[in-house]
Amino acid sequence: MPQSLTLIYQHVIFSTKSRRPFLRxxxxxxxxxxxxAGICDRQSCPSLQxxxxxxxxxxxxxxxxxxxxADVIRDLKRDSSKWIKTxxxxxxxxxxxxxxxxxxxxxxxxxxxxxxxxxxxPGHGMEPPRGFVPSGRPWRCEPPMFVANQTPLGFSWDGxxxx
Length: 163
Hints:
The protein is 26% helix and 20% strand. It is an alpha+beta fold and 163 residues long. It has one domain (8-161): 2-Layer Sandwich (Alpha-Beta Plaits), CATH 3.30.70.
């Protein structure tokens, strides 16, 4: 075969530093989600969905095979952090936590959930595994403010996207 084919989907989650609720303003949050999607797209890692709440974001994108997940996330955090500081002086101290969570998602799961509307997570009729409470705080998300390419997908704790 003269060509290579990869189909690598990543679900990535990262938080604001110390889980500070910097993203309370829904308009700014929506703009940030769109900005994050644009960063993915510029890296040739097409975004499928971006969402989150006041202290963390979720992204689903197709990873380019020549780029590491660490490089993608580094660029997402760096560029979005620089951008949000230009939005308003109240974001001058904004930063992301150094860590992240990244999970591969099968192409079948992505395809199965292409008609799903919303971003179901705990608090939307789905619960995390027993005993799982990130950072000792309740976990909750809102539907995404920005959905790239109009391909919203769902997430469940027991099986990745879909469920």
